[in-house]
Amino acid sequence: MLTCEICGEELVLEEDMKTHLLLSHMENDMGCPLCSWSGVAYDELCFHINTTHKEKQDHDGGAEGRGGHSLVRPSSSPTPTTTIVDSHCKQAIGLSRSEGSEEGVANGNRFDTIGGGVSLRTSNSTLESKERMTVSPQAFIRGEFGGGRAVAIVEPASSVSTGFLRSAQDSSRPTSRHCNAEDSVGVGSAEHTKVKQKRFSSPLKEKQFSCPMCALVCTDAFILQEHVELHLLEESPAEEAVLGATSSTEAASTSNSSGGKSYECPLCSVVCGDCYSLQEHVELHLDYGTATSAVSPGSDLRLARRLQEEEKQRRKEQEAKREAEEFKKLQRQFGVDGRGGYRKQMERTMEKAVSQGVMVPADFHNKRAEMMEALASGVDDGRTRTQGGLGALYVYYQREVRDCVHVWLSADTDHFCSSEGDKGWGCGYRNFQMLLSSLQKMEPYTTCLSEGSVPSIPRVQVLIEGAWREGLDPQGATHFNQRLQGTRAWIGATEIYALCTSLRVSARVLDFHQPTGPGDTHPRLFDWVKQYFSQTATRGARLPPRVVQTTQPPLYLQHQGHSRSIVGVEQKKNGSLCLLLLDPGCSPGDVRKLLSQDGSTVSTAVRRMRKFPGNLKHRQYQVVAVDGVLSPEEKQTRVLNSRTLQAERIP
C-alpha cells in the first residue's frame, strides 16, 4: 500500500500514485527557496536554482554539510513545506542518498529508503519532533531518486507547521521567500538580472515530446503519457453515452411504448416522439461524428428539421399502408376484391371436391353444365328452395303450442338457403328471393311480377344494376362502382328498396338506430313487428283467433354482417314477444323438419326460428316492409326522392 505524503491518500498501484500526484499536486505553486521567484514549472524552477544560485549553493555547501540550515520554502499553511534539492546542493539536507552511510552518520543524521521514498531521521535535539522528509510527487513520477533532482517534503509531526527547518547549529535563523542580504553575497543585482536573461534566451536541451491528439509539447515521456490518458478519459464518457443511448433505445423497442411518451437525445436537445425515432437520431449522430464533438445550434436545428420531415414521411407511409390493408380487407369482406362472383365460386368449389375425391369428374361436368344453363335462363334452379314451411307452422301452432296467447304468421313464403356459389355473402339475395316468392302468390303483385319464376342470384344482380341506371339510389350505385355482376358484393336494405321500387313494389325502410331497452335490446322493434302483422288480422273482429296467418308479406331484417326474414311473431301469456325468423344460413334439411309429422322434430325446428329480445342485441337494425304496388307516377316520384334516400328512424 502506497501513501501520499502530501494528502495521506492510500493507493495500491504505483501507476495510480503517479496519476494522483500528477493530477492533485503537480499544479501546486512552487517557488525558489533562495529568492522571490515563484509561479513556474518544476523544470524551470530547477534550471533557475542551478544557474542563478549556483555560487550561493557552493558557498553554503560546506556549512550545511556540517549541519547548516536547509533550503526550505516557508509556508503559512499547515500543509507540508517543499525543499528543492539537486546534485549541486546536496548539503541543503546534510547529505545525499549515496553518502548516507558516511557523512550523514557523522553528522548524526541517517537516510532510510522506504517504498521508493527517502526518509530523514536525526538524533539532534532540535529535531525531536520526528520530522520526516520524503521524495516529492514530481520526483516520484520522474523516478529521479539518485543524484538527480528531487523535492523533499518536510512534514512535522505536530499539528502546527513551523514553516521552516531548524538545525542543531543554527536554530534561530529565520527563512524567507525573498533573498536576504546574507544569501545574496557575491551575486549582484546586475549579475542576477543577466543570469535571468540568459535563462530565458537559452533554449532547453531536453528532448521534447509532442501530443498526437493536440498541439501540446511535453518535455518528459511520463508527462506525455499522463496527458494522453487524460485525452482518453475525456473521450470515453461520450462514447459510453452513445453506447448507452443505443442500448436504451434497443431495449425500449422491445417493450410496449405507449402512447404520449417522449424520449430526449442524450447527445443534444432533440426530443423524439418514440423510441424508434430516438434510435435513428442517435445513429445519425454516429454517422456524422457528432457523438464526441460539439454541435453548433444551426446544425442541431437542421438535424431536428430533417428528423421531423423523415418522421412525418414515415408516418404518412405507414398510414397509407395501413389504409390500403384495411381497404383490401373491406373489399374481401364485401366481395369486391375481384375474386369472381357466383359462377367462379361454384366452379372452384366443385373443382376442390374433385381434387379431394368427393366428386368424380363426370359429375363435375354434369353439374357445371346445369349451372351454366340456369345462369343463362336467369331463373333459380330451386335446389336450395323449401316450400310449404308457413303452412306447416300454422298447423303446428294450432295443434301443439299452448303457452302462446296469440301467434301471427306472414303469407306463405318459401325458404331459400345459401349454396356453394354464394356461401358467405349471398344472404341479402336469398332473403329477396324469399320476399319475392311470397309476393308472387299474392293477388295485388301478380301484375308487376312474373308468376312462379324466382330469379337467380346473378339475375338479381342484373336487376339491381338496372335500378341504378333508372336513377334509384345514386349513392349506393357509386359505392359499388355501378357494378355487381361477377362480384361477391354484399347488399343491404337500400339495395332491396331500390330493387322493389324498380319492380313497382311499394316499400319502406325503417331504421331502429339505437337500443330502446335494457341490456342493448330493441323492444320497440318487437312492438312494431307485432303491429305490422296484427293490423289486418284484427280488422272487423271482436276476438281475434289465437293463431292467424295474415296476408302480409315477410319483413326483410338487416343488421351488421347478416340479414334474415321475419315470418311471424308470438305473444306469450306473460305479454313477452318472440319473433319467428327464416335464416338463409339454415340448411334445407333443417327447414324441412317443419314438414315432419313428428311433433318433437317440428318443435326442434321452431325453437331454432324463435328469437327473443335478448337474442337481438346488435346496435342497429333496419327493416324493409312492402305495402302495395306503385303506379308509374309514384315510381317516378320515388326515383327522384331516392337521390337523398332517407329511412324512417325509430325512435
TrEMBL record:
Residues 74-83, 244-260 have a biased composition (Low complexity). Residues 4-25, 211-231, 265-285 form the C2H2-type domain. Residues 55-67 have a biased composition (Basic and acidic residues). One of its GO terms (molecular function) is cysteine-type deubiquitinase activity. Residues 55-84, 167-192, 241-262 are annotated as: Disordered. Its main location: cytoplasm. It comes from the Eukaryota. Signal peptide: none annotated. Residues 301-333 form a coiled coil. Deubiquitinase with endodeubiquitinase activity that specifically interacts with and cleaves 'Lys-63'-linked long polyubiquitin chains. Shows only weak activity against 'Lys-11' and 'Lys-48'-linked chains. Plays an important role in genome stability pathways, functioning to prevent spontaneous DNA damage and also promote cellular survival in response to exogenous DNA damage. Modulates the ubiquitination status of replication protein A (RPA) complex proteins in response to replication stress. This is Zinc finger-containing ubiquitin peptidase 1. The gene is LOC120048518.
